[in-house]
Amino acid sequence: MGIIDKAADVIISGGLVAFPTETVYGLGGDGLNPSASERIYAAKGRPSDNPLILHISDISQLEPLVKEIPENAVRLYEKFWPGPLTLIFKKSAVVPYETSGGLDTVAVRFPSNAVAQRLISASKTPIAAPSANTSGRPSPTRASHVAYDLDGKIDIILDGGACDFGLESTIVDVSEDIPCLLRPGAITLEMLRDVLGKVNVDKAVTDMLEGGELPKAPGMKYTHYSPNADVIIVRGERQKIVQKINELIADTDIRLKVGVIATEENKYSYKGCEVLVAGSIKEPEKIASNLFKMLRKCDHHGIDRVFAEGLPENEIGLAIMNRLKKAAGYHIIDA
Ligand code: TXA
Ligand code: MG
């Protein structure tokens, strides 16, 4: 029996399998089995009011999971599935509340990664899968990241190498008349608006929420992606960012180990710190795919405080800055 069939047997019998997708690694269980969902929450240490995404490997699996398929959903999935896009629908009775975190809606995604597709097909059920990290930690983009967080708590890890995009899927709520972006990703706001025209953006995508405000994606309310180091974003004109970060480093207590998450272009500009190069400013997709690895590296290198160069918040930059802001707890300094 091949490893995929073995992993599918684990899913069918209620166990947990970590598997690669084109975004990040997922921690999968049978999405229609309430006790599998409960095991997922327990392994991640995740609050059970934070719903899971159901992963499918054929468009025919969508209809039974949802109450209706709005026209806007069809336009999006015809263009972007399989791929890094999750859609929120009103849920059908088939989806257990344990999977949907008690909500009347359900998140569905059709990943393009071949291992993910083969696992879902062989399991013959939609696979519920959050990112395969311990709750609050950066999402895993390598099998080794999954093992570091979850070894001993799950049954199998399928190693599919590094993930292509490295940031979690774009989430769009299509259950209401005007679609709403809940989490930015590789399918950018510009791409969504090209297809749909008007798309709202949930406040939690760009801004810190005030007391009493709730994000539409429950997971966006938790502190996230955080290494042990304090993360501070420095944004502004490119040259001013470098100058400001060097000033901030000079002002930092010398007992602290300082790091900078820098662009390739600026890697020789920082003094008295460890420089982690995320990629060239000309290739922001590369920066996106390296970001979580950089945040994890901060821990492995014992960094206490890390300054991250801010990026323009358009196209993939919106998703990069969204993850960085959450890692930084919205600690942003304007240069
Ligand atoms: O790329 C991805 O989406 C990865 C891979 C494994 O597919 N999965 C992932 O899952 O990022 P997770 O659980 O880490 O993030 C899912 C997000 C959470 O913020 C959750 O609150 C939100 O989706 N979500 C899930 N169901 C929802 C719903 N019915 N309504 C609103 N938000 C929902
Ligand atoms: Mg996650």
Can you describe what's shown?
The strands form 2 sheets. A 10-stranded mixed beta sheet has the order 7-1-2-6-3-5-4-8-9-10, with helices on both faces. 48% of the residues are buried. The protein is built from 9 helices and 15 strands. It is an alpha/beta fold and 335 residues long. The model has no long low-confidence stretch (mean pLDDT 96). Helix 1 crosses helix 4 (114-123) and helix 8 runs parallel beside helix 9. The chain has 2 domains: 3-205, Alpha-Beta Complex (DHBP synthase); 230-334, 3-Layer(aba) Sandwich (Rossmann fold), CATH 3.40.50. It is globular and about 60 Å long. It has helices at 3-12, 34-44, 71-80, 114-123, 143-150, 189-196, 238-251, 284-300, 316-327; strands at 17-19, 26-30, 53-55, 85-90, 105-109, 127-128, 156-157, 170-173, 180-183, 200-201, 230-235, 258-263, 274-279, 305-309, 332-334. Strand 8 and strand 9 (180-183) form a beta hairpin. Threonylcarbamoyladenylate is lined by residues 21, 23-24, 26, 50-53, 86, 88, 100, 103, 105-107, 109, 129-131, 168-169, 171, 182, 216-220.
